[in-house]
Amino acid sequence: MKNKQLAAIVIGTLFAAVTQLAIAKGPNYTYAEIGYINLDGDNVEGNGGGVNISYGATDHIFVKMGYAHFNLDTPDADADRFQIGLGGHMEVAKDIDVLGALSYVDIEFSNGVPVSGDDGYLAEIGVRGMVNKKFELNATVSQLDVGGGSDTGFGIGAVGKIAKKFWLTGGYRQFQDDDEGELFLGVRLKL
């Protein structure tokens, strides 16, 4: 009799654990996304596209990588931006995480200007929260230091589910000193 009770308890516990894993809890840190980017500022204007990848390496650590290509109108040039970083996150309330990340950033210019580039870092702190299982809101404050210049940015974004693993994503980040805005609209595949 005790073996049957123990087996029932174990099966019930496993069922509860699997059920809890199936329910979306908090934001997902393993995904790939692709999208359109628009830049608009005092010193730069243009359009382009980008790819971002994030990998939740542990329960609290993620690695992120990104590439973007821009066709700039002001100045008349092309630009490529590479980014790789490491971040951490912690749940502070049900379905709400605070996060921080530090990334290396490399920007290369070509086609219209002598091939040149700048590198530096991007530090971010922010919050991500699931409004429900199909909709996330996020906000960040960032410090960008590239090529000897430093600027503070503020960003907001949203992610909404459109299919089993596919989500629409959008965000806007505004940098203060250069008065530069960056709009991103894309599709995210949660892995």
Question: How does this model look, in words?
Answer:
By secondary structure, the chain is mostly beta strands. The protein has a single domain (28-190), classed as Porin, CATH 2.40.160.20. It is 11% helix and 69% strand. The protein contains 1 helix and 10 strands. It has one helix spanning 2-22; strands spanning 31-40, 45-56, 61-74, 77-93, 96-110, 116-132, 135-146, 149-161, 166-175, 180-190. Strands 1-2-3-4-5-6-7-8-9-10 form a 10-stranded antiparallel beta barrel. Strand 9 (166-175) and strand 10 form a beta hairpin. The longest helix has 21 residues, at 2-22. Mean pLDDT is 87; it is low at 16-24.
Secondary-structure topology with pairs:
Layout: H1 2-22, E1 31-40, E2 45-56, E3 61-74, E4 77-93, E5 96-110, E6 116-132, E7 135-146, E8 149-161, E9 166-175, E10 180-190
Antiparallel strand pairs: 1-2, 1-10, 2-3, 3-4, 4-5, 5-6, 6-7, 7-8, 8-9, 9-10
Q: Kindly report the spatial arrangement of strands forming the biggest sheet.
A: 1-2-3-4-5-6-7-8-9-10
Q: Using the coordinates above, name the CATH class.
A: Mainly Beta
In total, the number of domains comes to: 1
Radius of gyration over all CA atoms, rounded:
20 Å
User: What does the largest sheet look like?
Assistant: 10 strands, antiparallel, barrel
Q: Tell me the fraction of residues in β-strands, as a range.
A: over 45%
Shape: globular
Distance between the termini: 43 Å
Series of H and E elements? HEEEEEEEEEE
CATH architecture: Beta Barrel
Q: Unreliable stretches, pLDDT < 50, 5 or more residues?
A: 16-24
Tell me the number of helical segments per DSSP (H or I, 4 or more residues long): 1
The level of helicity is: 10-25%
Number of strands: 10
| Structural class by SSE content | mainly beta
Quote the CATH topology: Porin
Average pLDDT confidence is 87
